[in-house]
From TrEMBL:
This is Starch synthase catalytic domain-containing protein. Residues 1-63, 871-948 are annotated as: Disordered. The chain crosses the membrane at residues 109-133. Pfam families: Glyco_trans_1_4 (PF13692), Glyco_transf_5 (PF08323).
């Protein structure tokens, strides 16, 4: 028996007795005790004297369990090559424990290293495999064949013809932005258009929007969302197999406020505001991988983001395919899907990211002649970014139906896709222009300049042949946008913050220039702007000061982008700082007032491709003259209307503008505009007449030119010349921008001195008339103005229905005869010689090429035959290559696969390339077919070089 070391050693038992007749008893030995201890034990009771022996038993039992546990732990540590617990970390102590461990130290180190290295290799392999299967193929250098197109005289809508639309014609707007999911100008424009169309009562309007995840977290919206249908969206694998992914569709009853008469003095603000509703159909994410992460967004600024494992292009194609499926489902079951009794008559597509919806709708038409197909209207909101938006063909083929499931007309539609493919990239904007019944642009003046050849833009070869073809038929029109007065935060008459602080414009009726109201101080617009400025100084002393009461405020609103003119900000601040130093130098001579030149520049907007660090640096360097209010704080939402009201100028130095909503809103708040006047800005901005008397001078803007001879402004070589901006000038270099910076500073200085003159020398009535005239110019930009946007879009819808109904029933689809594909590339005398290579800037919203790639324009190039990868089931001629099951001599129909969309398209591209290459001296092999020697596939850049 092994006794723990804490117990005394055992001794032999001793005999005790009382005489000879006494019995013998054996007692266990106990440790030796002193006399004092024995006397104290004698006074204890028997249970108390028994306690030490019980405690000793418990200690013995626990010691046995501890020894067994340590033995088991030592065995486990030996298995994994670990030293015993309590071993010292030094080498000497480790060597002492080596005999107990049983594994030599070098071997243990080798095993540990092997385990670590193996784990790292396996983890790296997993990461590499995920990256290989998840990444998008690299984009090739873009090769655009040069094409010619005719300049067409612009033809606008005929206002004399009657409108034949039936009452409550059903219209669906399709967009990525609207209402609660508004990020930029597209969402603002579409929201105001839909609200204005709903007020007219001529159309039954709904909106199709992605179901962004953050909408479920908005308290006033989540209770209004209800499920209405579940779609089965087809997705094609690279082998041609089709799987259907479930897609829920919900309906949101979106509430907005309507202010029909915000100018009426006798109508109270609370009574004028009315609540109305618009149905928004939300296309949800898929219920299987990877579409389950579609439309994840933290807020409205995140709507164009894509989260792994779903690619951005797959997200756009998923929305387009599901939208077309939902429209077809409604027209097939109009009374059971959403409770409405009407079919979808019109589909209005907004932006290039939704252009593929036109293709899917036309595919439904080609598949089923008896189906009810709506008329399609496509609106281009931009002439730069939208044209360049593209999808890789390798991504697009996953959303094309296989050939065996298509009718002959649908097959024809698929085979026409190569007309919109360049360097393995599909450009859907041109395709939507061809497939739409009517095409619109957001500016009438720019639309006229485009068709008549005065306006050029980057990569116009991609879309101009399609626009010219539609313009010849009279199906391309420009419609200038309007201002949304239902957005209370941007209405200076009924904005809640302005009304609460007493800084709103007085409501004096529709005639703002009535002379009887000009002299009444209680009805003064100038006094309202002064009160707004004082309210900002009191509420935001960190951003505004008392000096702002004696100097003008220049307000810049918009995304922080290069093409918005952010490069003009620092030169203005440097000019103001230099003027301040000059005034301080002349202070002692009594001429400080003559040299006083001061202003504050306020920049308010959202971060984008212009570095936010540069703007913050300006805030630090020019604290007296510069105020930055970005989207990182809540100041815009809380004080945005007050800042607009307090501003004295609206600064819009854009390089390109389709409409210029910020400038129009600046006029609405009584602020003249300092701008370049490019694009659609020239439709409502009028430069001040310097020859006329100051108080009666007509005009609403101080304009400066970006380049000589372009636009109407200071230093114009051709006054009243072209209103548009050329493509190569849309993104200028700093050297090219230097003359425009000097002109901008000159115009800004003139505007500031004009403000000082009005403030000190003009009579109060003249000041009041000046501000009210600016507001009147903005009110004339209403959506409901005579022959305005609402009426023009109604006429466009009427024309689109007439074109749609003119197609033969059961015959060839209308896009076959009425929308031929653009002409093929031909060598002409006007073609640019050689190859022109330019760098491509990364755009903030639409994902295109990176700056490392190139754009090349070729006078003539054969159609590239490698746009799609080699199909897995198409080897050799007719699929007669060797395989594991039969190969060329294989028998059995089960080994014979039907051609997939990928292989059919590739075969079609090869045929076109073969026909096109007959005029060459010698036939070149396809640059993307694997050579016979088994070498790797030729790169895209080498393939493009062979066609030079």
């Amino acid at each position: 028996m092994v006794v723990p070391s804490g117990l005394p050693p055992a001794t032999p038992p001793r005999r005790t007795g009382q005489g000879r007749s006494s019995s013998i008893s054996i007692i266990p030995a106990t440790p030796s005790r002193s006399p004092i201890t024995r006397r104290s034990e004698a006074r204890r009771s028997p249970p108390q004297r028994q306690a030490p022996s019980t405690r000793d038993g418990r200690e013995l039992e626990s010691a046995s369990k501890l020894a067994a546990y340590k033995k088991k732990e030592d065995i486990g540590r030996r298995i994994f090559g670990l030293p015993p617990r309590g071993a010292a970390s030094s080498t000497r102590d480790s060597k002492q424990h080596l005999p107990q461990i049983g594994v030599p130290l070098p071997r243990r180190c080798f095993l540990r290293t092997l385990v670590i290295v193996g784990t790292a290799v396996i983890a790296g392999l997993i990461v590499w495999l995920v990256a290989i299967f998840d990444r998008e193929p690299a984009r090739e250098p873009l090769v655009i064949p040069y094409r010619e197109w005719d300049t067409v005289p612009y033809t606008h809508l005929d206002y004399s013809s009657p409108i034949a639309l039936r009452p409550m014609t059903r219209l669906f707007h399709v967009s990525k932005e609207f209402g609660p999911a508004t990020m930029g100008g597209l969402g603002v424009m579409l929201t105001s258009l839909v609200v204005a169309q709903t007020q007219s009562g001529q159309l039954d309007i709904s909106v199709i929007l992605p179901h962004y995840s953050y909408l479920n977290s908005i308290p006033e919206l989540k209770d209004q969302i209800e499920l209405v249908a579940e779609l089965q969206v087809p997705v094609v694998s690279y082998r041609g197999h089709v799987r259907h992914v479930a897609c829920p569709v919900s309906r949101l009853r979106w509430k907005y406020v309507d202010v029909p008469d915000f100018l009426g003095a006798e109508v109270e603000t609370a009574e004028a505001i009315q609540e109305r509703f618009i149905d928004i159909y939300l296309i949800g994410p898929g219920k299987s991988h990877p579409f389950h992460v579609a439309f994840r967004a933290k807020d409205s600024g995140d709507v164009y983001s894509a989260y792994k494992p779903l690619r951005q292009e797959w997200k756009d194609l998923w929305f387009a395919s599901a939208t077309a499926e939902f429209i077809g489902l409604i027209n097939a079951h109009p009374t059971t899907i959403d409770g409405s009794s009407g079919l979808v008559d019109l589909v209005h597509l907004h932006g290039a990211t939704n252009a593929m919806v036109a293709y899917y709708i036309r595919q439904q038409e080609a598949q089923n002649h008896n189906a009810t197909i709506p008329a399609i209207i496509y609106t281009l909101h931009d002439s730069l970014d939208e044209v360049e938006y593209s999808n890789l063909v390798s991504n697009a083929v996953s959303f094309l139906s296989p050939i065996e499931h298509q009718s002959p007309l649908a097959h024809l539609l698929v085979t026409r896709l190569p007309n919109y493919v360049h360097s393995a990239q599909l450009f859907p904007a041109a395709m939507a222009v061809d497939l739409a019944d009517m095409v619109t642009f957001v500016s009438r003046s720019i639309a006229a300049d485009i068709t008549e050849g005065r306006f050029t833009f980057r990569l116009q070869e991609l879309i101009m042949p399609s626009i010219a073809a539609q313009a010849k038929r009279g199906h391309f029109v420009g419609i200038t946008n309007g201002i949304d007065f239902t957005d209370l935060s941007k209405n200076p008459f009924v904005a809640p913050l302005l009304v609460k602080r007493g800084a709103a414009f007085p409501r004096i009726g529709s005639n703002l220039l009535r002379s009887s109201t000009l002299e009444d101080e209680a009805l003064s617009f100038v006094a309202a702007k002064r009160r707004a400025k004082q309210a900002l100084i009191d509420a935001l002393p960190m951003h505004f000061s008392e000096a702002d009461l004696r100097r003008p405020i220049l307000l810049f609103i918009g995304r922080f982008q290069y093409n918005k003119g952010c490069e003009f900000l620092e030169p203005i601040l440097e000019m103001l700082l230099e003027a301040q130093r000059t005034a301080e130098a002349f202070k002692d001579d009594g001429q400080a007032a003559h040299h006083q030149f001061d202003a504050r520049l306020v920049v308010m907007g959202a971060r984008n491709n212009y570095p936010i660090q540069e703007l913050r640096r300006l805030q630090q360097w020019y604290p007296r003259h510069f105020t930055l209010i970005d989207d990182a704080s809540d100041l815009q939402s809380q004080w945005g209307s007050m800042i607009r009201m307090a501003s004295d100028f609206s600064f819009v130095p854009s390089f390109s503008e389709a409409f210029g909503l910020v400038a129009a809103e600046g006029l609405l708040f009584g602020a003249p505009v300092i701008s370049t006047g490019v694009g659609g800005l020239a439709e409502f901005l009028v430069p001040f007449d310097k020859e006329a008397k100051k108080p009666s001078s007509a005009g609403n803007a101080h304009l400066f030119q970006l380049y000589g001879g372009v636009g109407r402004g200071e230093g114009s070589g051709t006054p009243g010349g072209e209103l548009s901006l050329q493509a190569d000038q849309a993104r200028p270099s700093l050297e090219e921008l230097d003359p425009a910076i000097r002109r901008c500073n000159t115009v800004v200085a003139s505007a500031i001195r004009g403000w000082q003159e009005r403030a000190h020398d003009w009579a109060r009535v003249d000041q009041e008339r000046f501000v009210r005239r600016l507001v009147v110019d903005a009110l004339e930009l209403s959506w409901h103005r005579p022959n305005g946007p609402v009426e023009e879009f109604t006429r466009v819808y009427d024309a689109a229905l007439r074109v749609s109904r003119a197609r033969p029933i059961g015959g060839r689809a209308h896009w076959v005869d009425h929308h031929p594909h653009p002409p093929a590339a031909t060598l002409t005398k006007s073609a640019p010689p050689g190859i022109v290579a330019t760098a491509v800037a990364h755009l903030p919203i639409y994902k295109i090429w990176t700056t490392d790639n190139e754009i090349r324009r070729q006078p003539q190039a054969p159609i590239v035959a490698h746009l799609l990868p080699e199909a897995a089931n198409s080897k050799g001629n007719g699929g007669s290559g060797s395989s594991k099951k039969g190969g060329a001599n294989g028998s059995g129909a089960r080994n014979k696969k039907k051609p997939s969309t990928t292989s059919a398209l590739k075969s079609h591209f090869h045929q076109k390339a073969k026909a096109h290459s007959t005029h060459h001296e010698h036939r070149k092999p396809s640059p993307h077919r694997r050579p016979k020697n088994g070498s790797k596939q030729m790169t895209a850049k080498s393939a493009a070089r062979r066609h030079r």
